[in-house]
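Retry 2 of 3 after timeout on previous attempt. Resubmitting structure tokens to design endpoint.
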């Protein structure tokens, strides 16, 4: 899908239509200031590349799900590939992951490419009511990097709430489902840490870009993005350490809950073993006491019940049941 934005009276305006023909009518000077591509087709990439002179490998960089963060600057075209957080909800688990996100900056416009919906769409919608100074492609690019870092922090907060819910459930759980959820969270944290470190490396390299020289506002915005990214990295590292400890502790809790059940079942086995022994003895084909008495069966039942109650009280006093 293609969405093209133009700058009118200091505000971003989306063009009518989402096809290359409607977004990019033939004209000598491109009017678009920003183009947003979400899961684009080959035809859409070709149309944007030919219309604005952008290399196709730049446009398709974010279409490789395993693409790592990197930066390229050649012939006045800047390519930044970062990774953004995504939430994958399934019926059984809530998973978090990352996917590649490309920002391409040319002398006349900026382009974002991603396989999924991303923060750029919300940011561009917000800039429809912003001032003209905040809608330059360079500033939009830096604001996007800042938004990506804050989005990581938001997802980490959601992950923390999810872990709290699992923790409350595990106190009484004897199943592996909650432990599997913990495993998914740990895996998500590894993805987040890898992406955040890669994004940080890219933003550090951006300090030497020509348009940042002498532009204090742009450098301050880049510094803000780096600070937020560092905060998200520190938070993810803390969560990773906590998750490692919690996984061991919760594994012990599940094992302890199972031990409690086994202890109760063992106690019940001991209680019912007393009447079983007496019934087995009186089932032998040998002369036995009281075998000719009419009240023998009732007496044996009373004795078995009394002994079972006595054993039960002894086990309760020993905290076995």
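Retry 2 succeeded. Sequence:
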């Amino acid at each position: 899908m293609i969405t093209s934005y133009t700058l009118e009276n200091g505000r971003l305006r989306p063009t009518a239509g989402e096809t290359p023909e409607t977004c990019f009518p033939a004209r000598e000077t491109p009017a678009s200031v920003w183009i947003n591509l979400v899961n684009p087709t080959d035809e859409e990439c070709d149309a944007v590349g030919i219309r604005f002179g952008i290399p196709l490998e730049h446009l398709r960089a974010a279409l490789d799900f395993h693409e790592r963060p990197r930066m390229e600057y050649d012939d006045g075209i800047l390519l930044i590939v970062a990774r953004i957080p995504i939430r994958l909800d399934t019926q059984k688990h809530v998973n978090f992951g990352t996917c590649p996100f490309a920002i391409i900056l040319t002398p006349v416009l900026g382009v974002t490419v991603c396989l999924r919906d991303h923060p750029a769409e919300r940011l561009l919608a917000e800039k429809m009511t912003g001032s003209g100074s905040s809608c330059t492609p360079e500033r939009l690019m830096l604001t996007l990097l800042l938004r990506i870092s804050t989005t990581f922090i938001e997802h980490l907060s959601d992950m923390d709430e999810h872990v709290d819910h699992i923790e409350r459930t595990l106190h009484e759980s004897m199943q592996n489902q909650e432990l599997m959820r913990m495993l998914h969270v740990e895996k998500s944290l590894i993805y987040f840490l890898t992406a955040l470190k890669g994004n940080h490396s890219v933003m550090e390299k951006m300090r030497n870009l020509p348009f940042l020289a002498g532009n204090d506002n742009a450098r301050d915005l880049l510094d803000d993005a780096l600070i937020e990214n560092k905060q998200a990295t520190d938070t993810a590292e803390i969560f990773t350490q906590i998750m490692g400890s919690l996984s061991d502790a919760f594994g012990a809790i599940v094992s302890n809950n199972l031990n409690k059940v086994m202890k109760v079942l063992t106690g019940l086995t001991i209680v019912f073993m007393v009447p079983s022994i007496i019934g087995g003895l009186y089932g032998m084909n040998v002369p036995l006491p009281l075998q000719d008495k009419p009240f023998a069966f009732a007496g044996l039942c009373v004795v078995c019940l009394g002994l079972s109650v006595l054993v039960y009280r002894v086990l309760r006093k020993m905290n076995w049941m």
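Attempt log closed. The chain has eight helices and seven strands.
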